[in-house]
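Deliverable D2.4 — example input (structure tokens):
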């Protein structure tokens, strides 16, 4: 049973590392009258956020 937990843990760590690779997005803020639009300079994704901060993940992989 311990080995199963270790394998699951390894998979989670791998997923986290791969997610960090997608966090290299360079979000740039485009101010608009009704709130900023964030555009990723790396993949071209555009989004709005509720708190006015750039997204933490690249939206490229969500489509
Ligand atoms: Zn991106």
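Example output (designed residues):
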């Amino acid at each position: 049973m311990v080995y199963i937990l270790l394998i699951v843990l390894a998979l989670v760590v791998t997923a986290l590392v791969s997610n960090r690779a997608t966090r290299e997005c360079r979000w740039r803020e485009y101010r608009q009258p009704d709130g900023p639009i964030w555009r990723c300079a790396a993949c071209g994704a555009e989004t709005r956020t509720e708190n006015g901060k750039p997204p933490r993940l690249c939206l490229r992989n969500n489509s």
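The first helix runs from residue 2 to 21.
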